[in-house]
Amino acid sequence: QMQLAESGGGQVQAGGSLRLSCKPSRSIQSLNKVGWSRQAPGKSRELVGTWRNSGGATYADFVRGRFTITTDIAQNTVTLQMNMLKPEDTAVYYCLANNWGGDYFGPGTPVTVSS
Predict the structure, then answer these.
(1) Which of 38, 76, 108, 113 is such that its CA lies 20 to 30 A from the CA of 11?
(2) Contact 38, 24 (CB under 8 A)
(3) Neighbouring C-alpha atoms within 13 Å toward the C-beta of 52
């Protein structure tokens, strides 16, 4: 089992920024990948982006150029920096981790972007 603890959600106006953080219970260096997904009201969960030890970060088209995923190995933390936020970015954001055997998700943190 693995636990993922997210923090940093909240409310912001369109055009603003928020930073989400996640601390997995296992070393990021031991994982296949870490990242973020989100689920907007009434919609299915969608992948925002992932970060791999071997290949860096990849992003969904709808956030590329606005969101950045970084990791701090010393702090064992995954960060999602969200800039130029839009109302359609409103969702619950989930930290995710894959340990080669399956995906794990955190409890989620809400992000609300007002117009």
Answers:
(1) 76
(2) no
(3) 6
First to last CA, the chain: 39
CB 38 within 8 A of CB 97: no
Dist. CA 15–CA 19, nearest whole Å: 14
Q: Per residue in 34-55, pLDDT tens?
A: 999 999 999 999 999 999 988 8
Q: Is 89 exposed, middle or buried (0-12, 13-18, 19+ CB in 10 A)?
A: buried
| Helix runs in 1-115, H state only | none
Closest of 18, 76, 24 to residue 48, by C-alpha: 18
Task: Note the pLDDT tens digit of each residue in 8-35.
Answer: 999 999 999 999 999 999 999 999 999 9
Q: Which are the contacts of 72, defined by CB distance < 8 A and separation ≥ 6?
A: 79
